[in-house]
Amino acid sequence: MRLKRFHDKRTLGEAAARHAAGSLQRAIASRGEARIIAATGCSQFDFLAVLTQAPGIDWSRVEMFHLDEYVGLRADHPASFRKFLLDRLIGPTGIVRHHLLDGEADPEAACREVGRALQSAPVDVAFLGIGENGHLAFNDPPADFETTRPYLVVRLDEACRRQQVGEGWFETIADVPQRAISMSIRQLLSANELICTVPEARKAVAVQAALEGELTPMVPASILRTHPNVTIYLDDDSAALLDEPTLGRHE
User: Fold this and answer.
1) pLDDT tens digits in sequence order for the chain, 251 residues long
2) Can you tell me the distance from the alpha carbon of 183 to that of 129, in angstroms, rounded to the nearest whole number?
3) Which H helix or E strand runs over 113?
4) Does residue 240 fall inside a structural domain?
5) What is the CATH number of the domain that holds 194?
6) Which residue of 45, 69, 110, 195 lies most exposed, with the fewest beta carbons within 10 A?
7) Coil, strand or helix: which one is 224?
8) Is 70 helix (H, G, I), strand (E, B) or coil?
9) CA atoms within 13 A on the CB side of 152
10) What is the rounded CA–CA span in Å between residue 146 and residue 34?
């Protein structure tokens, strides 16, 4: 596990995007294509803004898979992760091969359909964040570390739903759906590389628990420590509670 710390979330996002661009370029050069998993949410704003403008990426050779989506939320709702990816990744790059999760009609069918496509070949790189409650995707604590299903329909805990209100996606917690489709933990860990961007002070407790606490389903992001090729990008605020001698600064 590699930890990289930056002064603020903008420089963090820029550095993570440069890293991701290099990973995509290498995959395309070696295999003729790159398969990616894309996250959403505030932690991805700066990262995607830079990545989508990076030179030298042939986006026609990139196949994208959706990380998670709310059950029952319209695709045009401001909080829809389909809308997020269309506006911030698919639209700017022109990615044609993309697999979005439809949680409106039949979420279990969406899990099966996108899951089959996802498991048809290895994933080169997954872009991730960490939730305020330590979740990965919508795998809230206690997360299922054992299932081999690629996607699950999960129930969101209150801390996760309150985070969505705090980030401005919904007006009240009553507006936040109680269920979601989420990529499973084991499916995430099967990607060849993980790039995890985690800015802001509100993530500091989760970051400390994930990186320095017990490896446990009660802190889903702690499982990242078992992956052989993961880089976690932090800023001064999100890294504030970590043991300083173990964490160098990158500018």
Assistant:
1) 999 999 999 999 999 999 999 999 999 999 999 999 999 988 899 999 999 999 999 999 999 999 999 999 999 999 999 999 999 999 999 999 999 999 998 999 999 999 999 999 999 999 999 999 999 999 999 999 999 999 999 999 998 888 889 888 888 999 998 999 999 999 999 999 999 999 999 999 999 999 999 999 999 999 999 999 999 999 999 999 998 644 554 44
2) 13
3) helix 107-118
4) no
5) 3.40.50.1360
6) 45
7) helix
8) strand
9) 21
10) 27
DSSP summary character for residue 86: I
Return the DSSP state at 249.
B
Q: How far is 176 from 71, CA to CA, in rounded Å?
A: 10
Instruction: Note whether residue 99 is domain-resident.
Output: yes
DSSP readout, 127-140?
EE---TTS-BTTBP
Q: Which amino acid is at 7?
A: H
- How many other CB atoms are there within 10 angstroms of residue 157's CB atom? 17
What residues make up the domain containing 15? 2-204+211-217+224-234
Residue 242 lies in a domain: no
Alpha carbons 177 and 72: distance in angstroms, whole number: 7
- Residues written for the chain: 251
Q: Please report whether residue 61 resides in a domain.
A: yes
Number of domains in the chain: 1
Name the E strands within the chain: 2-6, 34-38, 62-66, 68-70, 97-99, 125-128, 151-155, 179-183, 193-198, 230-235
Q: How many CB atoms lie within 10 A of CB 232?
A: 25
